[in-house]
Amino acid sequence: MSSKKRRRVVLTRLSEPFLQVTDLTYQYAPAKSFSLGKQSFTLEKGKLLVILGPSGSGKSTLLQLIAGLLRPNEGEIIMGGKPIHHLPPEKRNLSMIFQKTYLLPFLTVGANVEIGLKLKGMPSHKRRVRSEEILNQVGLTGFYQRPLSSLSGGQEQRVALARSLVIEPQLLLLDEPFSQLDPLLRRQMGSWISDIKRMWEIPMIMVTHDREEALALGDQFLILRDGAEQQSGTLDNIYYEPANRWTADFMGIDNVLDGIKKGTRVTTFLGDLKVHPHCIRVPDGPVRIVLRSEWLQLDFTSSIKATIEGCSFRGEYTEVKANVNGESVVIKQLGLSNYERGMETGVRLATSNVWCLPKEVM
Ligand code: ADP
Ligand code: MG
């Protein structure tokens, strides 16, 4: 092969995504039970894809198809340039972590971590060196000899993480691994996952129904509902640019309000506003405008008048309800604020354009 040709091959390989999932479908037997509609996405090395959706939307089903625990009806999975959809789980070079750790309680931490290496036939002294290295990385230095039964829930999850990583998988799959842990521990585990991703550059796919966890950890997102993709994209896309009314609600956008669109402008209760460039293709006429509550700010000097309807402290921020030209809106104020119901003030819009959705047909 000429050097030019070889360089081209190398360049193509570099630009290929690490994981490419195309038109994956699955139907549980019998025929009328849940089916997962065509799913396609790509994942780059060192990135974390979050599969987000309510309970029963098909998140675990999709993850199990990638892991090889279920066989797809159709579609393909290419990992590192090679098809893997026909391979059994143990030949896919990936690890999976579940909510339940599946650790062996009668063994030590070290023995649990080493299981995968033992199966590969690695001699015991090497296994120990490797396992202790990994235990250090997950913050469990000196835990090698400890009985598993002496560990807390969070420590057990870290042992499960160490056991998955010790075999050096090319892909890490996580199915709601922290949903049993208390909120503080959950956050800590989230930051472990971010550290591991950064240090190892290992691509990960994580399933969760927890929006906050998803937004904190994900680089890419896939939102599922009833086995169908609702939206996929970056953090910006799913946070600010909902694909439809359902995603807007699911992503916790408080203000989805009426407007009348004409070309690049939309008439709303806040006056005449500019339409987001990506929404100009939305047909003219009645639309929904989507305003995250942080785009609205209380400002008594503003010419747009508002009357306070109520407020409640949510820990870290105060949720204020205000009436603006007959529309009830939600505004979030950082910290603890107290506004009297009926108080007259004003609001300011902190964005230069607004996201619009076609008004849903009832
Ligand atoms: P999620 O992880 O998003 O909560 P799942 O992928 O576990 O959802 O399940 C999606 C749907 O498939 C659910 O309605 C569930 O009841 C159904 N389901 C899961 N496992 C089976 C099975 N073995 N046989 C039939 N239906 C199943
Ligand atoms: Mg699940």
From TrEMBL:
The complex is composed of two ATP-binding proteins (OpuCA), two transmembrane proteins (OpuCB and OpuCD) and a solute-binding protein (OpuCC). It comes from the Bacteria. Keywords: ATP-binding, Nucleotide-binding, Transport. The keyword Transport applies. It comes from Cohnella luojiensis. Residues 19-251 form the ABC transporter domain. This is Carnitine transport ATP-binding protein OpuCA. One of its GO terms (molecular function) is ATP binding. SUPFAM superfamilies: MOP-like (SSF50331), P-loop containing nucleoside triphosphate hydrolases (SSF52540). Its EC number is 7.6.2.9. It catalyses: a quaternary ammonium(out) + ATP + H2O = a quaternary ammonium(in) + ADP + phosphate + H(+). Pfam families: ABC_tran (PF00005).
